[in-house]
Please model this.
Amino acid sequence: MVHVADAEVGLAARVRALTRADHEAAETTSFVTDLMAGRLDVAAYTRLASQHYFIYEALERGGDALRTDPVAGDFVGFGLERLPAIAADLHDLRGPSWRSEISPLPATRDYLTRLAAAASDPPAYVAHHYTRYLGDLSGGQLVRKALRREYGLAADGTRFYEFPGVAIGAVKRRYRELLDAAPWSATEQDRFIDEVKRAFALNRAVFEALATSPAEAA
Ligand code: HEM
Model:
């Protein structure tokens, strides 16, 4: 059923409003607030970057599968892929044998399962794409500043947060226009919003696992 109010407010504004509490819950986990305040260390950030490797590998594999999809393909086409930057960061942070040292935490495995399912479901995929990449272009830029300020990290190790050649403000605007223009039914829009909420919860679970798992586990 199409609600008039829903049709008048674009999907970009709706998802933002309807996931505000989910965003806040992820942003205020102890791992994130401690990282931002300089209460952790480079090793803790490295453990986060290691989990990002698995998450973006699955996210970007899903993007490859949907590159020619008429709706999801436009989002994939922004070219925001992070995997090469994460691999370079992990090389800087852990050394040349980084790949054999890392493994997904159980919470990350749950996230990967969901990402694999989303690879054949465009609204769900765009939900995961939105949650991560728009977050990286927004709060991620504040995380980059905190990593430099609090832990003395330079470009090496923090490439994940750098988008060379990307006009961040313009991309975010265009991204929201594309969300508003997505030719989804009301049901598909609701599924998209629900999946964004799920994506926030999956990210939150990874932060909680990072805060409680032993350092050698990731
Ligand atoms: C250090 C923690 C975080 C901070 C300080 C932060 C901060 C922000 C800020 C200031 C914005 C608004 C930017 C704008 O309007 O241009 C934003 C947007 C966003 N953030 Fe975060 N954030 C954090 C963590 C996260 C996390 C963990 C996620 C998800 C994994 C996330 C996902 C998003 C998304 C999807 C948006 C875009 C909302 C929209 O405009 O539609 N953020 N964040």
About this structure: The pocket of protoporphyrin IX containing FE is lined by residues 12, 16, 23, 26-27, 32, 36, 130-132, 134-135, 138-139, 142-143, 172, 200, 203 (CB under 6 Å).
